[in-house]
Design goal:
The chain contains 17 helices and 14 strands. The radius of gyration is 23 Å and the shape is elongated. The relative contact order is 0.09. The strands form 3 sheets. The chain has a 6-stranded parallel beta sheet, with helices on both faces. Helix 17 links the parallel strand 13 and strand 14. Helix 5 packs parallel to helix 6 and helix 12 packs across helix 13. With 434 residues, it is α/β, with parallel strands linked by helices. It folds into 2 domains: 197 residues, Rossmann fold, CATH 3.40.50.720; 220 residues, 3-Layer(aba) Sandwich (Rossmann fold). Bound molecules: uridine-5'-diphosphate-glucuronic acid. The site of uridine-5'-diphosphate-glucuronic acid has 21 residues, from helix 9 and helix 11.
C-alpha cells in the first residue's frame, strides 16, 4: 500500500514510521521545510523513545520518505492521512480546524484515482462532513472517501500503542474505503487488533469520549486523594481496592498534580464547548475541567504548607517539568502552574528534567536549571517531585538528605513510601496519604 501522511508532527511522524515498519511505502509531508530538511538528515524533532531508530531503519530500507511536495505524494497514494494540528482556538476553546480544512483543499487538488482520505487529527463531530463538502465542492468528479480514524497514542509509549492497539476505530459508510483501511491495518492482524467500524460521526465522538473519560478517571482519583488526606486514608490502596474490580479497572487511577499534555486539556475543553453549543451539556466534563485547573495551584499551596506556611526567600528544588515522563513536552504541564505559584509566593526555583529543559526555558524563564537531580537539590529548602521519571524513582536518599538544607520532600507522584521516608528523617508529604 502507498500511504501519505499530511503533517509530520507527533501523530504523523509516529504513525508514518509505524506504517512503514509494517511494509507500506510511506511519504510524510509537511509545509515546514526546516522540519523536513532536518528529518531527511536524520534529526527527529520530538523526543519519543524508539522513534529515531524506527525512522532511520525505514528510511534506510526505502519505505519512508519526507517531503514538502504534497502533490506527488497524494497522487500516488491509496490512503492519505490528515495528521495536522488542531490547537484550541484562542478565546473560545473550540478546536481550530483551519489546518485540517487547508489540508483537505490541498489534497483534493491532487487526487488521482480512488483514494481514502482519513482524518487522524482529533476533530469535533461533523468535521468529516465538512472535509467531504470542501473536497466535493472543489472537484465534484474526484473519486474519494473521507474516513475518520482517530489515534489513541500516548506520548512516551506511542510506538507500542500503535503496534499493539486496544482497538482501531474506523468511521466510514463506504465499502471501498473499508477494504482499503483493512489493508492498511492488515499487518497488525497477527496481534488480532479489534477493528471497529462505525459511522464517521460516531468515530469522531469516540475519540473525545475516550479522552474525556480518562481525564474524568484521573480527576476522580485526585479528589478521592484529597478526601484521603482529610480522613487519614491511603489513596494508592483505595485505587488498588477499586481498580481490582474489573468493571472499574486499575489504569489511570494514579493520583497526582492533575493531568496535562497536548490532548486531555484541549480535548475536554473542545468537547465541553461542542456539547454546550448543541444544548447537550456534559456537566461531568465541565466539572473535571475546572477541578483539574484548580488542582495545579492547589499543589503549590501544598508545597508552601509543607515548607511551614511560607516560601518567601526559600529555594525550592523541582524534579520533573514535562507533563509526564518519557517526553520533552511541556504543553499544559502541571509544573508550569506550580512553579509560577511558587515564584509568586516569593520562592526561588531550581529545576531539573531529563528531556524537557530546553522547552521549559521558553515557558519558565524565571528559574534556574540544573544538570542533574543532585545538583538541583543541593542547598534547597525543599524538594518537590513533579514528574515521575524513572531516574527519580531510586535516588540515593542519603545523598538527597545530605544535599538538602531542610529535609523536606513533597512527592506529587507518590513514587516514595511515606513510612520509609519518615524513618529516614525526611519531612515527607505526598498525594492522598495522610
Ligand atoms: C492521551 C491518551 O492517553 C491517548 O490515548 C490519546 O491518544 C492522547 O491523549 C491523544 O489524544 O493524542 P497523552 O496525553 O500522551 O495521551 O498522555 P497520558 O499518558 O494519557 O497522560 C495524560 C496526563 O494524565 C499526564 O499529565 C499524566 O501525568 C496524567 N495521568 C495519567 C495521571 O495524573 N494519572 C494517571 O493515572 C494517568
Amino acid at each position: 500500500m502507498r500511504v501519505t501522511m499530511i503533517g509530520s508532527g507527533y501523530v504523523g511522524l509516529v504513525s508514518g514510521a509505524c506504517f512503514a515498519d509494517f511494509g507500506h511505502a510511506v511519504t510524510c509531508v509537511d509545509t515546514d521545510s526546516a522540519k523536513i530538511e532536518a528529518l531527511n538528515s536524520g534529526a527527529i524533532p520530538i523526543f519519543e523513545p524508539g522513534l529515531d531508530s524506527l525512522v532511520a531503519k525505514n528510511m534506510r530500507e526505502g519505505r519512508l520518505s519526507f517531503t514538502t511536495e504534497l502533490a506527488g505524494a497524494v497522487r500516488t497514494a491509496d490512503a492519505v492521512f490528515i495528521a495536522v494540528g488542531t490547537p484550541a482556538r484562542r478565546g473560545d476553546g473550540h478546536a481550530d480546524l483551519s489546518y485540517v480544512y487547508q489540508a483537505a483543499r490541498d489534497i483534493v487538488a491532487e487526487l488521482d484515482g480512488f483514494t481514502v482520505v482519513a482524518t487522524k487529527s482529533t476533530v469535533p463531530v461533523g468535521t468529516g462532513d465538512e472535509v467531504e463538502r470542501i473536497m466535493r465542492e472543489a472537484r465534484p468528479e474526484a473519486d474519494f472517501a473521507v474516513v475518520s480514524n482517530p489515534e489513541f497514542l500516548r506520548e512516551g509509549a506511542a510506538i507500542s500503542d500503535f503496534k499493539r492497539p486496544d482497538r482501531i476505530v474506523i468511521g466510514t459508510g463506504d465499502d471501498r474505503a473499508k477494504r482499503v483501511m483493512e489493508d492498511v491495518y492488515r499487518p497488525l492482524y497477527l496481534n488480532a487488533p479489534p477493528l471497529l467500524f462505525t459511522s464517521r460521526r460516531t468515530s469522531e465522538l469516540i475519540k473525545y469520549a475516550a479522552n474525556a473519560y480518562l481525564a474524568t478517571k484521573i480527576t476522580f482519583i485526585n479528589e478521592i486523594a484529597d478526601l484521603c488526606e482529610a480522613v487519614g486514608a491511603n489513596v494508592q490502596e483505595v485505587a488498588r481496592g477499586i481498580g481490582l474490580d474489573n468493571r472499574i479497572g486499575s489504569k489511570f487511577l494514579h493520583a497526582g498534580p492533575g493531568y496535562g499534555g497536548s490532548c486531555f486539556p484541549k480535548d475536554t475543553l473542545a468537547l465541553m464547548k461542542t456539547a454546550q453549543d448543541l444544548a447537550a451539556p456534559l456537566r461531568i466534563v465541565e466539572t473535571v475541567v475546572s477541578v483539574n485547573d484548580n488542582r495545579k495551584r492547589a499543589m503549590a499551596r501544598k508545597v508552601i504548607a509543607a515548607c511551614g506556611g511560607a516560601v518567601r526567600g526559600k529555594r525550592i528544588a523541582v524534579l520533573g517539568l514535562a507533563f509526564k515522563p518519557n517526553t520533552d513536552d511541556m504543553r499544559e504541564a502541571p509544573s508550569i502552574a506550580i512553579v509560577t505559584a511558587l515564584l509568586d509566593a516569593g520562592a526561588s526555583v531550581v529545576a531539573h528534567d531529563p528531556e524537557s529543559m530546553a522547552a521549559a526555558r521558553a515557558v519558565l524563564p524565571g528559574i534556574a536549571y540544573a544538570d542533574d537531580a543532585y545538583s538541583c537539590l543541593d542547598g534547597a529548602d525543599a524538594l518537590v517531585i513533579v514528574t515521575e521519571w524513572d531516574a527519580f524513582r531510586a535516588l540515593d536518599l542519603d545523598r538527597v538528605k545530605a544535599g538538602l538544607r531542610e529535609p523536606v520532600v513533597i512527592d506529587l507522584r507518590n513514587i516514595y513510601r511515606s513510612d520509609d521516608m519518615r524513618r529516614r528523617g525526611f519531612r515527607y508529604s505526598n498525594v492522598g496519604n495522610a
